[in-house]
Amino acid sequence: MNPTIVLVGRPNVGKSTLFNRLTKTRDALVADQPGLTRDRHYGIGRVGERKYLVVDTAGFDPVAKDGIMHEMARQAEQAIAEADVLLFLVDGRAGLTPHDEQIAARLRRAGRPVLLVVNKSEGMDRAMVGADFHALGLGEPLVVSAAHGDGVRQLVDIALAPFDDAPEDDDADAGPRVAVVGRPNVGKSTLVNTLIGEERVIAFDMPGTTRDAIAIPFERQGRHYTLIDTAGLRRRGKVFEAVEKFSVIKTLQAIEQCNVAVLVLDAAQDISEQDAHIAGFVLDAGRALVVAVNKWDDVDDYRRERTREDIARKLNFLDFARFHYVSALKAEGIGGLLKSVDAAYAAAMVNLSTPRLTRTLQAALAKQAPPRHGVFRPKLRYAHQGGSNPPVVVIHGSALEHVPASYVRYLERTFVDAFKLQGTPLRIQFRTSHNPYAEKG
Ligand SMILES: Nc1nc2c(ncn2[C@@H]2O[C@H](COP(=O)(O)OP(=O)(O)OP(=O)(O)O)[C@@H](O)[C@H]2O)c(=O)[nH]1
Ligand SMILES: Nc1nc2c(ncn2[C@@H]2O[C@H](COP(=O)(O)OP(=O)(O)OP(=O)(O)O)[C@@H](O)[C@H]2O)c(=O)[nH]1
């Protein structure tokens, strides 16, 4: 499972700056999606092959007793409890403050590994900046500059070193790994029970350590699926129920581990920011997606129309996904939902032949060439597949950094249509050749 790094520190020490640096490589893979607003507190990062989750607890005030600060502190407390490693940021220019000492006292009780990170240290003597903070009793300070990137790579390597576990085996026979996600009370546990309830649960993997997710294999109409345990759902006897608070971190981990996410929405409620953020996580992770608009039994025609409009307006960046209007409670629409899960899985795992990809690319270029950018005219030459779940199309050529996001989206749509890929996002990666001779001809 991907380790979770949680950033803690008093206001203004540079948590958001470090968060952006730790997550930006991943963001750059997703072309700007109109309508998608990201949750700036949770992100996915990557160093080499290794992925991790980053949580920014901005606004965390360990002494807040009420109001919005208290609510933020509560969420930060939850993140601290679920962290694999805590990065405690302090400001190397401001020196040690009483507020830092309060937070340090709180973190010493967290029972989690804590790395002390001294930020804003560019151009300063490392030994000198760090010395001030030894008094916190949190070990050797790691001296970095989040703004300039100094020491950040080493910081990540040190933070992640204890979690270098072997990659998980993919058991193809177990079918798609499915995560049922959504905000509290939309009907996730009801849907999960409906999905697996009718069929015998074949086996049950108990987690070896607390970091392992629970995976539940089940079978429907002769097809195999593996359900990834999701935020707030726990098995009690024969049924699933919500036994703990909704957790964004667990939701993100489930999304990262699945092949297909089923996003559950509540038709009786307006689409909320939280719905949109969870949808955004699925998109960022590049997972295949099926949307279940639940409680359809509970809403009248007027409300149905309103829900459709609300979805069209607020979740327009999910146009690659199939929407199903279902009742988890009455088990209506579930067969169709699973058919879309199968289709989305097949699309996510598709093999794209190089000649067909290149032909499709040529046809797209013939229909509409990429715009000239100043003196640069991007040249797209050929394409091949660079990955699955999501499918990645690698395009080779020159001056490709000047291809605008709108043209990338045009190419995405072209490939999706040509290969009939329903339910998965598709990524385009450019490889510019800098060989001047390659420009000729
Ligand atoms: N010199 C210097 N300034 C930095 C560095 N990192 C962040 N800053 C600056 O410090 C200020 C605060 O940075 P943020 O990342 O917003 O701090 P934060 O901890 O997220 O603050 P809150 O959101 O209030 O909790 C900004 O003006 C940053 O530009 C750094 O490495 N060096
Ligand atoms: N009418 C109707 N009610 C439903 C449906 N699905 C779930 N509910 C009800 O909605 C409420 C919440 O359902 P849960 O399955 O507990 O929701 P959840 O998303 O698992 O909630 P958390 O675990 O708290 O995140 C319960 O009272 C369910 O009975 C449905 O299809 N129709």
Automatic annotation (TrEMBL):
One MF annotation (Gene Ontology) recorded for this entry: ribosome binding
The keyword Mitochondrion belongs to this UniProt entry's keyword annotation: no
Domain of life of the native organism: Bacteria
Binding residues annotated for GTP 1, in chain numbering: 9-16, 56-60, 119-122
UniProt: GTP 2 binding residues: 182-189, 229-233, 294-297
Keyword Repeat: yes
GO BP field: ribosome biogenesis
Domain called EngA-type G: residue spans: 3-167, 176-349
Keywords: GTP-binding, Nucleotide-binding, Repeat, Ribosome biogenesis
Listed HAMAP family: GTPase_Der
Stated family: Belongs to the TRAFAC class TrmE-Era-EngA-EngB-Septin-like GTPase superfamily. EngA (Der) GTPase family.
Record's function text: GTPase that plays an essential role in the late steps of ribosome biogenesis.
Subunit structure: Associates with the 50S ribosomal subunit.
Name this protein carries in UniProt: GTPase Der
Organism name: Pseudothauera lacus
Lineage: Bacteria, Pseudomonadati, Pseudomonadota, Betaproteobacteria, Rhodocyclales
